[in-house]
Specification:
mainly alpha, 5 helices
Length: 99
């Protein structure tokens, strides 16, 4: 990997992270998700297709975006279903019986 390829990949990670962070209401979480997703996406593409990585200017950018979208989707799914397996508190049943 040459210095220019490294700088291109680093620019992709930073640009995706900054774009997500600036458009989010919860900036620390957005920064964490942006960095995690873009680094993970870039790493997985670099490991799985090193020849394509070396010869493409756009691939690091696409990998950063796809990785970030995947991590944000996973984060949203975990947040949406976090209370799925908790036992009900019973207060709704008590209110219904009192009427």
């Amino acid at each position: 990997m040459s210095v220019l390829e490294f700088l291109n990949a680093l620019a992709a990670v930073l640009a995706v992270t900054v774009a997500l962070t600036l458009t989010s209401l919860d900036r620390p979480v957005a920064m964490l998700l942006g960095l995690t997703g873009s680094l993970t996406g870039s790493f997985l593409v670099w490991v799985s297709a090193p020849a394509a990585w070396d010869h493409s200017v756009v691939l690091p950018w696409a990998a950063s975006v796809v990785g970030t979208v995947a991590v944000v989707a996973g984060w949203a799914a975990v947040r949406a279903y976090s209370g799925l397996f908790t036992a009900p508190d019973g207060s709704a049943d008590d209110a219904a019986r009192s009427h």
